[in-house]
């Protein structure tokens, strides 16, 4: 049974797709155009009553919320592909902790100079905490790659790309090395190669 993912091009669905690639799970994508409001049609709301992407359909099973979906696949296929969960209960706890912490929420996206400056300062402080953590441990949740980073990939990509805030990453040595490590994974490169963000779409920053 091939997993269906709605829709490939936006940030939250990309978390799911990179997870499926890491786990070696076959999938197909169903386009949903946010600009045309296709996520608010009665048909789509039957799948995701809140009108957000992503949703997956796995046979008769439907699931939404990107982090719930990646947890689901990491558990369901624990021994297939990359293990994204850790082996001990403590490792698992740390993965969950860093899965919940997303620095994107610190960055306001309104085109207001004052808000942008304040948000950047806030984000800088969060990244300082990442820097401190990463100076002691290769990855945030320990020495192994995990679910926590899948969830960071799409937004950090926006940050260093369209938002032109790469300096926030590069001026922190350990954060910079961490970003190079996770963004150079073949799974993420594949996602970027396959699914381009539509030029019309302005990232809403909703996590
Ligand atoms: N917490 C949700 C957030 C989903 C979300 O914000 N998705 C965005 C695309 S990345 C969306 O559907 N936005 C549509 C809108 O804001 O109307 C998740 O992680 O799945």
Automatic annotation (TrEMBL):
Residues 1-81 form the GST N-terminal domain. It comes from the Eukaryota. Keywords: Cytoplasm, Detoxification, Transferase. Residues 63-206 form the GST C-terminal domain. It is found in: Cytoplasm, Cytosol. Belongs to the GST superfamily. Phi family. GO terms for cellular component: cytosol. One of its GO terms (biological process) is toxin catabolic process. PROSITE patterns: GST_CTER, GST_NTER. It catalyses: RX + glutathione = an S-substituted glutathione + a halide anion + H(+). The keyword Cytoplasm applies. This is glutathione transferase. Pfam families: GST_C, GST_N. One of its GO terms (molecular function) is glutathione transferase activity. Its EC number is 2.5.1.18.
């Amino acid at each position: 049974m091939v997993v269906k993912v709605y829709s490939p091009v936006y940030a939250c669905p990309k978390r799911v797709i990179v997870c499926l690639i890491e786990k070696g799970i076959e999938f197909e994508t169903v386009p949903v155009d946010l600009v045309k409001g296709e996520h608010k049609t009665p048909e789509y709301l039957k799948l995701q009553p809140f009108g957000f992407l992503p949703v997956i359909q796995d046979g008769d099973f439907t699931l939404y919320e990107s982090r719930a979906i990646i947890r689901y696949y990491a558990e369901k296929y624990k021994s297939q592909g990359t293990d994204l969960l850790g082996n001990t209960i403590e490792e698992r706890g740390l993965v969950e902790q860093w899965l919940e912490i997303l620095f994107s929420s610190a960055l306001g996206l309104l085109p207001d100079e004052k808000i942008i400056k304040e948000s950047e300062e806030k984000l800088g402080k969060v990244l300082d905490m990442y820097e401190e953590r990463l100076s002691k441990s290769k990855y945030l949740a320990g020495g192994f790659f995990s679910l926590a980073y899948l969830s960071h990939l799409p937004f950090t990509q926006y940050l260093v790309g369209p938002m032109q805030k790469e300096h926030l990453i590069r001026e922190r040595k350990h954060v910079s090395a961490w970003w190079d490590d996770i963004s150079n994974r073949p799974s993420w490169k594949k996602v970027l190669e396959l699914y381009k963000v539509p030029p019309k779409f302005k990232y809403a920053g909703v996590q």
